[in-house]
């Protein structure tokens, strides 16, 4: 056993910023700060785009190709056959579900408007008042899906903790005890991460401007 | 060391990503408008007619009547919300149609005038399903002042729309939004 890197800095920053922004989004919209809520959603959109790109060009444990596995690998994991670092084949399902659920939530938010007509999501102008109201209704309902997935995520962490594996500390420090002989993490390049972030910000700003050629 | 550079560059990019998300959204700072745009007060522009005040202070109506008023209130507020949304969209569009704008501001001004009479005592959450908070009747002076401020803002924007002054309508729009929020934040309970 040896302490080795398992999560790179971009993955860890993504994880904790996303967690913080989800909490902030929830708090702000329930405390009459819908404008902050919209900002927070735009920041989450930037994060999602970044993570998607980093999932193709990032470090080995960040790449979808390393952790998205088929049913055979998942069954193998249950039988204790999995040896590796990063997301295990079952955890990968949770990662994908969380990313997809948050993406749906952001998508609905973009087209929503508040019930008083004071705030509009950046793309609400592209659809009718009724469609926008419907999007807000779904946006509110869909949050329960996100809550359920977060609960599952936390329960899984407690489950592993009870079986002697600490998952939270590695997501902070980036390092974990890894049995010898495991293939080490191949880090990504920091300037590639910055390019991914720049693309995320660029696309988000384009959407904030009102999309197509900046408006309906 | 590399982490420091990474974090610094990342932070710089994030700062670059922050800017005004949309000019014309309700969060753009326009502090001065409220003063210069207040419509001079005439006897007519006041919602606090004795009759309205009486309504709010009056003894509780019987339950069936209370429920009827609450339903009427709900419909009126929903209509007001719809007018606000339609107005926001129209003003944000490339070519706002003054006729559409006028229809909304006239609904807003008419509904605003009715607000005090829609909240008589005995129409709170203890009587039926409503998001009206008990604070409305505990702090009725503040509530009436806020509803009057909304009425003033709604009448001002309606006057500008009737005069066909789209620029002024745009300038006054934020006032209306603020007055709406100023009353909802303390006096309306969240959904569900």
Q: Your description of this structure?
A:
The complex is a heterodimer of chains A (216) and B (192). Chain A is mainly alpha-helical. Chain A has one domain (10-208): Transmembrane di-heme cytochromes, Chain C (Fumarate Reductase Cytochrome B subunit, Up-down Bundle). In chain A, 64% of the residues lie in helices and 4% in strands. Chain A is built from 8 helices and 2 strands. Chain A has a two-stranded antiparallel sheet. The longest helix of chain A is centred in the C-terminal third of the chain and has 34 residues, at 129-162. The model of chain A has no long low-confidence stretch (mean pLDDT 94). In chain B, α4 (63-92) runs antiparallel to α5. The longest helix of chain B has 30 residues, at 63-92. Residues 20-51 of chain B have low confidence and may be disordered. With 192 residues, chain B is mostly helical. Chain B has a single domain, classed as Four Helix Bundle (Hemerythrin (Met), subunit A), CATH 1.20.120. The interface between A and B is large, with 36 and 36 residues.
């Amino acid at each position: 056993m040896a302490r080795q890197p398992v999560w790179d800095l971009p993955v860890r920053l993504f994880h904790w910023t996303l967690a913080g922004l989800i909490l902030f989004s929830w708090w702000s919209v329930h405390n009459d700060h819908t404008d902050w809520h919209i900002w927070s959603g735009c920041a989450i959109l930037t994060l999602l785009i970044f993570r998607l790109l980093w999932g193709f060009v990032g470090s080995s444990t960040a790449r979808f190709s390393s952790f998205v596995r088929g049913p055979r690998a998942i069954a193998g994991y249950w039988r204790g056959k999995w040896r590796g670092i990063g997301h295990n084949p079952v955890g990968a399902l949770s990662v994908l579900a969380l990313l997809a659920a948050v993406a749906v939530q952001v998508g609905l938010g973009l087209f929503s408007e508040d019930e008083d007509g004071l705030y509009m999501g950046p793309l609400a102008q592209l659809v009718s008042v009724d469609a926008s109201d419907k999007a807000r209704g779904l946006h509110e309902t869909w949050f329960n899906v996100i809550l359920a997935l977060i609960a599952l995520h936390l329960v899984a962490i407690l489950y592993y903790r009870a079986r002697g594996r600490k998952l939270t500390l590695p997501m902070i420090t980036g390092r974990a005890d890894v049995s010898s002989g495991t293939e080490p993490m191949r880090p990504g390049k920091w300037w590639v991460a910055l390019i991914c972030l720049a693309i995320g910000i660029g696309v988000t700003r384009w959407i904030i401007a009102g999309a197509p050629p900046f408006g309906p | 060391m590399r982490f420091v550079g990474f974090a610094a560059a990342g932070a710089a990019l994030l700062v670059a990503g922050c800017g005004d998300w949309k000019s014309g959204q309700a969060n753009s700072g326009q502090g001065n408008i409220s003063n210069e745009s207040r419509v001079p007060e005439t006897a007519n522009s006041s919602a606090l007619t004795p009759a309205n005040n009486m309504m709010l202070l009056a003894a509780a109506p019987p339950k069936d009547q209370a429920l009827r008023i609450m339903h009427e209130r709900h419909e009126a507020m929903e209509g007001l919300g719809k007018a606000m949304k339609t107005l926001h969209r129209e003003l944000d569009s490339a070519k706002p149609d003054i006729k559409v704008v006028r229809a909304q501001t006239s609904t807003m001004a008419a509904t605003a005038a009715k607000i005090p009479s829609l909240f008589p005592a005995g129409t709170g959450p203890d009587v039926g399903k409503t998001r009206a908070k008990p604070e409305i009747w505990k702090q009725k002076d503040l509530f009436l002042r806020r509803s009057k401020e909304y009425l003033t803002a709604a009448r001002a924007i309606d006057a500008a729309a009737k005069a066909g002054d789209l620029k002024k309508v745009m300038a006054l729009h934020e006032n209306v939004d603020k007055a709406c929020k100023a009353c909802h934040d303390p006096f309306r309970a969240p959904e569900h």
